[in-house]
């Protein structure tokens, strides 16, 4: 479901995907993976849980346990996209990627320009699915962990070899300071 549809809950476990504008590999071009990890730190500091993720060159898949904090899930994701966008634009400027910056400027809609938006770094909407069962979470974890291995990407042969993923945490039992095993979520009350 696109972000234009308000997520009608303010806590719970959700599978979220958001994508760079026109699928441009902005995370890779700017080496902004660290910015995503800073966002993860922010989420955790605010009581949320990262259950699984993959940061691809141009999009992110993530499963988040959102704790009830008084902020809507849409606001949390919108703020993340804004934070990441500012960091990516700064890095593009430092890399002197003038043509790319101009393309991102050309992508801003007139109404957004009126609100002083300068660059379109992400696609307008994001996809989300509520995760109600362990089987659904496992299905989504398998999908995101195998994403770097698909023919389209062919970034690694084995999911656990891709460093910007929680695959090694689940497959090899490798420590990952950001990830909470989805099975532990049974003991966590997100509503308080």
What does this structure look like?
With 192 residues, the protein is an alpha+beta fold. It has a single domain, classed as Alpha-Beta Plaits (2-Layer Sandwich). Helices cover 37% and strands 14% of the residues. It has helices spanning 26-29, 33-45, 73-94, 98-106, 110-114, 134-146, 167-171, and strands at residues 12-19, 49-55, 59-66, 127-130. Strands 2-3-1-4 form a 4-stranded antiparallel beta sheet, sandwiched between helices. Strand 2 and strand 3 (59-66) form a beta hairpin. The radius of gyration is 17 Å and the shape is globular. It starts with 11 loop residues before the first strand and ends in a 21-residue tail after the last helix.
Summed up:
This protein is an alpha+beta fold and 192 residues long.
């Amino acid at each position: 479901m696109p972000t234009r549809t308000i997520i009608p809950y303010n806590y719970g476990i959700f599978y979220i995907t958001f994508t760079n504008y026109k699928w441009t590999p902005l995370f890779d071009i700017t080496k902004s993976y660290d910015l995503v990890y800073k966002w993860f730190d922010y989420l955790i500091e605010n009581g949320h849980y990262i259950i699984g993720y993959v940061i691809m060159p141009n999009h992110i898949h993530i499963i988040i346990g959102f704790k009830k904090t008084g902020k809507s899930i849409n606001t949390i994701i919108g703020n993340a996209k804004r934070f990441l966008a500012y960091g990516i634009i700064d890095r593009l400027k430092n890399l002197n990627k003038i043509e790319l910056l101009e393309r991102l400027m050309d992508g801003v809609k007139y109404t957004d320009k009126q609100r002083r938006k300068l660059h379109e770094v992400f696609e307008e909407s994001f996809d989300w699915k509520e995760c109600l069962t362990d089987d659904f979470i496992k299905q989504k974890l398998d999908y995101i962990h195998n994403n770097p291995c698909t023919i389209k990407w062919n970034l690694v042969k084995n999911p656990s070899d891709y460093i910007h993923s929680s695959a090694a945490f689940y497959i090899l039992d490798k420590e990952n300071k950001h990830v909470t095993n989805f099975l532990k979520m049974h003991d966590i009350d997100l509503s308080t």
